[in-house]
Amino acid sequence: MRDHGACVQQLTIIPGSDVIGTVEATREVADSKNILSSKSMDSLEYRAPSRLKRRLFFPCRSQQPAANQSGGFLVWGASSSVGSSVVQITELAGFTVYAVNGPRHNDYSKQLGLSACLKYNDPGVVDSIVEGAKLANQKIDIGYVPSPGIQKVDGGIEAVQEALELQKKGSSGKKLTSCFQFAEAGVKAIHQLEQELGVQIVPGTEVMRDVGSHHFVHAGKSDKVLVPQPSDDPHDPLNWSRAWKFSTIACSLALTFTQAIGPLSLAPMFPELIKAFDSNLNDVIDFTGVAILVLGFSNFIWVPISTSFGRRPANLASTLICFGSAIWRARAKTYGSFMGASVLNGIAAGPAETLGPAVIADIMFLHERGFYQTLYFSFYVGAIMAGPILAGPMSQFSGWRNYWWLNVAMHAATFFACLLGFPETKWDRAQLAKLSSEGSTEAMSPSVEKAVETSDKILHAEHDSSANPGLVENSTTEKDPWLRNGKPGRAQFRLFQANKSPWRSILMDIWIPWKLFAFPIVEFASFVVSWSLSNFLAINLTQTPSLEPPPYGFSPLAVGLSNFALLVGAVIGLSTAGPFSDWVSMKLTNRNRGIREPEMRLPTMIPYVLIMILSNFVVAFGYEYKWNWRAILIIGWAGSGIQTTALPSIVSTYAVDSYKPVAGSLFVSITVNKNLWGYGFSKFIEPWIEKSGYVKPIMTNMCLTTLWCLFGVLFWYKGKTFRVLTKDSKVHSM
């Protein structure tokens, strides 16, 4: 104020435990109702504890109050030093002030110009505020409850009641603070953007270009808009350098590979296991089937852990348990003991099916996810293909137990690699976007977790049901200084992340996967993934009984090495499906004036569905009529490898794009569906083949896979309709 000729010659920050923000003045100035007496001072800036920065433009005392510009403004604690300043500032800015105070300060409140002030200890104070706002036909856009944020209570005006309840219980002298940010401003901004684009914006719909005065953070010099928009924090996983992202992805893929390689590697060992445990083929197939079944439901343990305490503890703990199960398998002496080790392996290997997609969604931008999702599926499917390749030779030449000692070594190496190279990727991303227009700034989002530190930098946002990421005015657009230059902080290398309400998070993570089964897009993805992978499972479970007898006469070594055909197919799927999916999506986005819909990935399913049909024909009729083994492996098995990596990655990425906030729970839904079918398939495939031959069971499975894939046509035309029906679901704000 020194430069404006106000009554104080030095600018200081207001001290005191009741500070909820900072008025650029001394305490004496803040306590004075003549703070704005200087005619030379045209505006004053107020900074709130939530780090929300809002510029209020108002006239001097000699001028008339400004016209109402933003509806109601709640001030809780209007008689405090800062509260009294806020009351004066907001009144002059044109807000209707809803003030809450202690009854002994009513006289002082009247001196500030308030005609009425509600009592803070009135049990019905929140209802009174709401009723008053309704009668005045106003919306309370923003408000503050005093004190330095010792304990934060989020959730809009309803949180005031929660704060009162906490105060009644006692908080050891610590005051409570609650930052209110209502969705109305965000809804207005979305409606404005929808009018400019002529498109309904719902979860999953992304704006991939600048629109009018709204500009976004771009991928370097490219015209690609980054979705989600990164924050300006160097520790934000989206901002990490390429080296740290590579390290994280490499560790995640190593975990996927080492955990997935065990449960489905037994096929070449079946003859040796039958001898070792004096059993039969159907019984040793149960080692695989039971592990698959348990693995699917194990994610009701691992996903709640990764959501509540972080990806890192789920990664490390599951790897240690896999380490123990591999030792148990190697030392098992009886059928029951080996079955117990298989069950433990199934429990521990759950993160192989869910952690990878969650990590990809944490650290990769939308336009990158297609490739990395396919990379994840290739490592996952590659592991279950590589398992038999390794198990066959080792079983024949060094004994099947040594295969499990190899697993012990791989799990140990993965654990230490993840301990050092896998920081926590879960990030409480600010679900906040910002719209600036004609000198005023409005924050938008119904579920604000944190606010940005300055209005002169781009505000970054994760898209949800009522906010689109990163809307800012041209004059405030600034490239994120930490993009590709950030790194993990020390806190991200802790063994787990603190959670104030872990049980609530855990219960929600148990419930959400079942809720997602009611969402058509999730059901579509679950069925396509389940049946696509069951085509591979058919080959895995039938390779030994089909290739060992005449006319082929394959040894366990030859059966194991035959899986290279599947692996080559998986590599082809990796090298084509991800880039092809991203390329098609971007082409369709450009044709759609820069608006991306998740359904734009679905056309890329077409060539892989045709490959799936061809490969099943060759395998079924080749087995049945004893075709040349080269045709079966090169066309049938390799084609199965291609579709097994391509189709699941395309549809699962589609589902994640539609419901990104619950990516982990989404994969639990997919895994449960997949593994239930896989277990059932493993139980009836051999008896059915013995009774009817290879053609009927394999071709029936192929027809079901084709049926579920054909639903992609429905979702191409009506997928957005299904997303509109679920746009108000709470899963978008989790």
State the gist of this model.
Helix content is 55%, strand content 7%. By secondary structure, the protein is α/β, with parallel strands linked by helices.
Q: What would your notes on this structure say?
A:
The protein is built from 22 helices and 14 strands. The chain has 734 residues and is of the alpha/beta class. The chain folds into 2 domains: 2-182, Rossmann fold (3-Layer(aba) Sandwich); 237-427 and 504-726, Growth Hormone, Chain: A (Up-down Bundle). Strands 6-5-4-7-10 form a 5-stranded mixed sheet. It has a 3-stranded antiparallel sheet with strand order 1-2-3, with helices on one face. It is elongated, with a radius of gyration of 30 Å. Residues 1-69, 147-161, 166-186 and 430-478 have low confidence and may be disordered.
CATH superfamily of the largest domain: MFS general substrate transporter like domains
Number of H/I helices: 22
Q: Could you describe the largest sheet, including whether it forms a barrel?
A: 5 strands, mixed
User: CATH topology of the largest domain, anyone?
Assistant: Growth Hormone, Chain: A
Structural class given helices, strands, pairing? alpha/beta
Which CATH architecture of the largest domain is right?
Up-down Bundle
Number of strands: 14
Percentage of residues in DSSP E strands: 5-15%
Radius of gyration over alpha carbons?
A: 30 Å
Domain module count: 2
Proportion of residues in helical segments: 55-70%
| Alpha-carbon distance between the two ends | 43 Å
- Strand order in space, largest sheet: 6-5-4-7-10
